[in-house]
Fold this protein.
Amino acid sequence: MTTNQTTWKRKAFEAAAVLARWALGAFFIYMGLKKAMHPEEFLKLTRQYDMVHNSFLLNSIAAVLPWFETFCGALLLLGIAVRGTALTLVAELVPFTWLVWRRALVLQALRAIPFCAVKFDCGCGAGEVHICNKLAENIIQILAACWLLTGVGRAFCARHTLFSVKSGKV
Amino acid sequence: MPSLKSEIRTIVVEAAIVVIAGLGVGLAANELSPRGLALSRNYFPGGTNQAPAAPRPVQAVPGPAGTNEASQAAQISARLRGKGLQELKRSQVETLFHDPRSRDGRIVFVDARNPDDYQEGHVPGAYELDPYHPEKELGTVLPICQAAEEVVVYCTGGDCEDSDTAAILLQDCGVPGQKVFVYGGGFPAWKAARLPVETGARNSGIHSQ
């Protein structure tokens, strides 16, 4: 393989990573703002997961999460603390995907329909969605966030890493 | 070259900063947003903060005709009883709507759905009351409900509990419980029965049916 081919491949790889960062950032901003515009609807949807029964905690989740997602999306789009943000999104997406999957299983049992035919509003900001599409979408997002965790997508970043690691110290 | 351990530590510290900053931004944005939630308020009074036991079916479960509707109606009745609310069936609501008292404000209809749904169509003459942002309409609606003999609250039926929340809110604000009723079937049942529907603002005079 020639040096030119290697350079071209590296550039294409980096460009794909930047696009993935922008796409993930834009997606979170869009979904976050959609939820933030109707927090009471998001509150009702959050309640369906039976995560917490304390009204203060439930309200806090419904009030903060949409803006939190918007904030994380903005960080990714601007390229600030990219790996920390990616880790935060993975930590949010994995349990949320599990909750959605669990909820879908309950609905499947109640309606006696195939798993992929289950359609409901999971509180993701996109209204009613088919569960298999939602799970696939979440897995793609988790993979994209994991990819960013490896340190790719540094081009057009305002501050990719908050700390410079030189001597192994934060 | 930083070691893997220090790389991981950097990412975790960065994530912690993102989380703390994100929570701060979220709390501030919620506080500043006109649509923000009041954190200390219980938006689901009269019960726990647990979700309804049975979710709204999107696709019918195979079974004898009417089984689904009957079981859903039973669930709504049980939910309202559990909250100490009185339920009205469609025929009773229709009777109240045609009662002459509804024209002089002795029977009042309250729409607890969101403003967009209200604009698209509501029971003619119904007052709008968003139970999640009661500060908008409560000042107008409360004296009218206090003066009325019967108050019928509705939302979108099924597992929609906004009518319950609005009914409890009215009771909490001093409207006697014995004159507050919830129309369990909600607006979809009203519309399905081809009863009159008013669009736009209250008393706009624009009727779609």
In short: Residues 114 and 130 of chain B are 6 Å apart (CA to CA). Chain B touches chain A through 51 residues (CB under 8 Å). Chain B has two domains: 1-35, 76-192.
